[in-house]
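hey so u asked for the seq, here:
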Amino acid sequence: MPEAPAGTLYRGREGMWSWVAHRVTGFLIFFFLLVHVADTSLVRVSPEAYNAVIGAYKNPIMGLAEAGLVAAIVFHAFNGIRVMLVDFWSSGPRYQRVMLWIVLGLVVVTMAAFLPRHLMNVFGGGH
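ran it, C-alpha cells below
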C-alpha cells in the first residue's frame, strides 16, 4: 500500500475512518428522524394504525436497534465536537488521532452507562 502524502489526515488512516463513520451515523440518524416523523404522524390519520406500529416496535430486535441508534447519536455528537476542534483549533490537526481515541473512549463509557438499564427493559428484566 502506498504511503499517504505528507500533510493529509485521510487516505485509510484514523482520520478517514472517523470521516466515514461520521457520515454513516449522520445518515442513519437522519433516516431514523424521517421514520419517526412518519410513524408519529399516523396518530392524526389513524390512531389504530399508530398503535399497531408502536406495538410492532416493542420487540427485542427493535430494542437492539434503539441501542444502535443511541450509539450512533453518541458517536456522532462526540465526533462532531472533535471535527470542530480539528477545524477551528490551531493544534487540532496535530491531536486529531488522540482526540479520536478520546471520542471512542467517551462512546464506550456512555454506552456502558446506558446499555444495562436499556437491555433490562428490552429483555423484560426492568419491568
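Residues 14-123 form a domain with the 3 helical TM bundles of succinate and fumarate reductases fold (CATH 1.20.1300.10). Residues 22 and 80 are 8 Å apart (CA to CA).
lmk if thats what u needed
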